[in-house]
Amino acid sequence: MTARFEVGPGGRLSGRLRVPGDKSISHRSIMLGAIAEGVTQVSGFLEGADAISTMNVFRSLGVRIDGPTGGRVTVHGVGLGGLKASDHPLDCGNAGTAMRLLMGLLSGQGFASTLIGDESLTKRPMRRVADPLSRMGADIRTHEGRPPVRIEPVAQLEGIRYEMPMASAQVKSALLLAGLSAKGVTEVIEPAPTRDHTERMLEGFGVRVEREGASVRLRGGQRLRATSIDVPSDISSAAFFMVGASIAPGSDLVLEHVGTNPTRTGILSILRLMGADIEEINPRVVGGEPVADLRVRHARLRGIDVPPELVPLAIDEFPVLFVAAACAEGRTRVTGAEELRVKESDRIAVMARGLQSLGVDATPTEDGMVIGGRPAAFDPAAPVFRGGQIDSHGDHRIAMSFAVAALRASDTVLIDDTANVATSFPGFVELARAAGLAIDARS
Ligand code: S3P
């Protein structure tokens, strides 16, 4: 039997808690630390399976990395030309970010590499990165657009100007990393703002990155100088508790040291449009990234049409936002979110099925979902979901979203196939239980 969650109905969330480090920033800290000159110290590193996959890949590429111990990692950088061929395929596990960014980084190296992943990653589209990299002169082969990915060495990459057809930080980052070893300037134009951790961190390593409106540019041949990186808590992990506290009457919770980079705060904007009560306390900048403590109290949510421009800024938070929408008064409509279909699972189909099985009026559309919501006179403490059994399809964010839904369920919610929660949120069960969720993990 696979791992599962058993979550008792009701309860409220309270206290102070710190969720683990940001996944996007943790991946990048290893990658940039590895190709920098000198020793990079990382603190607050996410000790989850995805970031550990990246760490192990770089060890296979000849980089000494100490840790993680209590979120501390030491990366002994080898410089951009110092990576060595691995004698075995590089296993990215469940991590799309690892694979796509590595495609960029490795395409300009003087050796061949093969990138592989788990069952979910092996189904995910890689042409979005392989195509523009090929235009830079890279020799990249996929298996019908999906992993495994084979990268052969080429004499020299050339910088290109690339207008991305989709808003994707992974595509943007892959091209910028390839651009470091390309001749001339690499420029990426985004159709909408996406997370800019790569740009910020490159600057922290001393690389000149020119940003102007939707354009990001860098010149190849620049060297990275080691630095220290303090990884903030992951707003995508905090999101489960933001929604949980918002929907559960009596909740009052403080989430400490959460990354509030404006390219990641779509969840805050959307929940506030729905009427959530979220206060940002003590905003500060830590290692080039904005951070704040977030105080979240229960509020009566209302359904909205989610503004499409907020979608890329909350792309990983939609599973739990659908749960919030189910608890809101009136209908919520999400459009422009077709990317959700190619995440760790088809998050539109899997969430709609799960919500329907708990009694929610949820209609999947090609690019989003329409969720019926509650009538105006609905008692804000009454159960919204009936109990039931959910198949998370091995998707960490689906599993955690339904765990939080149990706060407003009438009966126990069982969630199957939850082992992958450890990819992004090790310790979720313990932290959620300490905050007030009646959750148990079973195997
Ligand atoms: C990520 C970018 C996003 C996000 C993923 C992490 C990153 O993917 O969904 O979880 O770290 O760059 P896309 O770039 O495909 O939108």
Write out the distinct hetero groups bound to the structure: shikimate-3-phosphate
The fraction of residues in strands falls at 25-35%
Shape label: globular
Structural class call reads: alpha/beta
Low-confidence stretches: none
Main sheet attributes: strand count, strand direction, barrel closure:
4 strands, mixed
Number of strands: 25
State the helicity in percent bands: 25-40%
Q: Compute the gyration radius: what is it? A: 21 Å
Please give the count of helices: 13
Question: What would the average pLDDT be, to the nearest integer?
Answer: 97
Span from first to last CA? 6 Å
Taking strands numbered 1, 2, ... along the chain, how are they ordered across the largest sheet? Answer: 23-24-1-25
